[in-house]
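queue> holo job accepted (magnesium ion)
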Amino acid sequence: LTERLQNAFNGLRKKGKVTESDVRDAMREIRLALLEADVNFDVVKKFVKTVREKAVGSEVLDSLTPAQQIVKIVHDELVNVMGDAAVPLNKSEHIPTIIMMVGLQGAGKTTTAGKLAKRLIQDEKARPLMIAADIYRPAAVDQLVTVGQQVGVPVFEMGTDHDPVDIVRQGLAEAAAKKNDYVIIDTAGRLEIDEQLMQELSNIKELAQPNEILLVVDAMTGQVATQVAEGFNERLDITGVVLTKLDGDTRGGAALSIRSVTGKPIKFVGQGEKLDAIDVFYPDRMADRILGMGDMMTLIEKAQQDYDEKQAEDMARKIKENSFDFNDFVEQMDQIQNMGPIEDIMKMIPGMANNPALKNVKMDPKDIDHIKAIVYSMTPKEREDPDLLNPSRRRRIAAGSGRSVQEVNRMIKQFKQSRDMMNKMSKGNFNGMENMFGS
Ligand code: GDP
Ligand code: MG
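queue> job finished
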């Protein structure tokens, strides 16, 4: 998926201005890419239609950065379909909160039960109890017991000779007696959805009245994952989804279609076999993943789209040689102003969207005007050589620009910081990115 989309966007980028037929081409690529990633056909159709309408309808065609805008529209729409924010667990008003894990065999129910228990202990000092209600494979009970030992959580089990509904009933009684605040029920799976399993799960649901029915789905199963989610949701009215095995080179396709087809939120993602490899699901990060935006270079390229190639080369060389000066700084400010709000651009960097450092990144267009006023009050020599700026020159510049000396000092400091930062970035070091725009 990623490669495919990257190619589509690379195609756009090289052309500069985007025509309506470019949008059509890009949309065809996006459509193929999503289908290749096993996104459900109807979901793809709907998705592409929405994006195309938004792209053609907006000022993309005569925009200065058309490719960037299309990427943003696709990205925003992915987030839109997958939900805007992480959705927390449903909690019961009185203990215990009951969580029922359901899903096909091998999806990761037992592992995820352990991961959730561990997380609840860490986050809330919870005292969960797990119930072993998968009686079809002797190993299943043992597996949950082992997982329980690993995370320090008691497991209620009655071997494999009892009816699962009975086991759950007695397990809940045990939890009531021990005042456990969470009960996690591990149920059986099958290789595919069958009526007998669904009946059993319905019975358990009826008895336990769980606050959460979490469907665990293997993200690597693509299209099948969507059908599975649809089937389970129809019968059990699930409350959320856990997408496992995202640590592989899985494409994000399943996330998109499961959410779209069931309307149920993906609450967690599994990222490995270890019992701490679980994360809250962030739609924003998943959109990044689907689009393959992890590459910082994409962003830099984006910033440079408006430059002609020579200008871009000049800039890159200057940054590398650390001869980036105030003229470049102003030029860059203009670039940034043309790209839209900095906060939005920063959010497109994977890991940045939820980075606390981003909270400090705010740039008022007025600030940019002030910065420009300060730069324009410098002599040409000063603009080329920031080291000339001694206190008396700074006072003169402040008077000339109508800004305070403190502001001039702050701006110069910010300039130097961002110059250093870009220099580091050009050498492949992205740490401290948040300082780039001052704070
Ligand atoms: P269940 O049949 O649904 O209970 O599935 P299990 O919990 O037994 O998991 C099946 C296999 O998938 C086991 O080998 C797990 O270690 C593995 N597994 C579960 N979740 C993940 C995950 O997020 N990433 C990876 N790589 N493996 C996982
Ligand atoms: Mg299991």
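queue> The domain at 2-82 is CATH 1.20.120.140 (Four Helix Bundle (Hemerythrin (Met), subunit A)).
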